[in-house]
Design brief:
Shape: globular
Order of helices and strands: HEHEHHEHEEEEHHHEHHHEEEEEH
Strand order of the largest sheet: 10-11-9-8-7-6-13
Mean pLDDT: 85
Number of helices: 12
Helix content: 10-25%
Structural class: alpha/beta
Largest sheet: 7 strands, mixed
Number of domains: 1
CATH architecture: 4-Layer Sandwich
Length: 347
Amino acid sequence: MTFCRLLAKYSASLEFAYVHEMDRSLAVRTTRIAIWGCGHGELDRVYEAVAALNASAPDGRAIELVICCGDFQSVRNEADLATMACPQKYRRMNTFFKYYSGEAIAPLPTIFVGGNHEASCYLQELYNGGWVAPNIFFLGRSGVIQFRGLRIAGVSGIFKGGDFRSGYFERLPYSDDAVRSINHVREFDYARLSTLRCPIDIMVGHDWPRGIEHYGDTSSLLRDKPLFEPDVRSGQLGNPASWELLTRIRPRFWFGAHLHVKFSALVIHPDRASVASGSVGASPTAGSAAACTIDNSSCHTLPEVTRFLSLDKCLPGRAYLQVLDVPWRAGESSLSRSPTYCMLHFD
């Protein structure tokens, strides 16, 4: 099977494949990454797909990094399984336990954020992120890493207004309510991410920034997901905190999942000087985004465009995987934490 046909098999369409950011201030070297939608514990399936794509790549280049956009389901054992917020019929061990035990090894670096269906017993131990298995890294409740000159940020969970301004009150053994609330985002983590001063190349979240549907093909989205229409019309689809963060830090790419549909969008940010007095997080309208003034005197100019992509869950025939070539500046090839963000965690 040819490389393009394999891409079509896993991503359903190619309109977002091999995006090259036209930023002349960056080096022309690129890192090839695979974006994975909702994980649902299907590591074997994804690594098999990546191997097939690598074998068929016309330029001989291999995918260097896999990024999962939540619901990774790092289930080590049955005790972990009992802390996963989902109906009983969906509680399955799947394949992560093999990578945790050493029976299998991830063939390339893999990073992920948490979604709303996670083995929270394990991830709660890694609030600041960390290695959950050899070559597999959790970005934490929020976090920033560096890989091949790319700065990659992430935030775990989904938005629920009632928990957003609370602390992390959940303790084992989880109650039925705590099993769900542990997967809800908190204002504190967004506040830390909003202090980032240097540009973020890739932002990873689980649910969508609120209003992002207005920056893509909304009609096509509603044809695929007609049940979204009431939330789209009322302005309730997605996470308002993520929209505020998107307009504040302006990542070059924002990847998400959660809604089990492939959807791409393009947010063109206005000139900062013209909106310095505007409100961050204002209700989005097609073609514009509110922003605030940030001191970036010591960093590269923030991108004026954010490309958004959400992918489906990992099932045959679904658009759950997308390959991109992302330009990078300069840096080590290994994965490392961002030292500036570590200070926000530990000082």
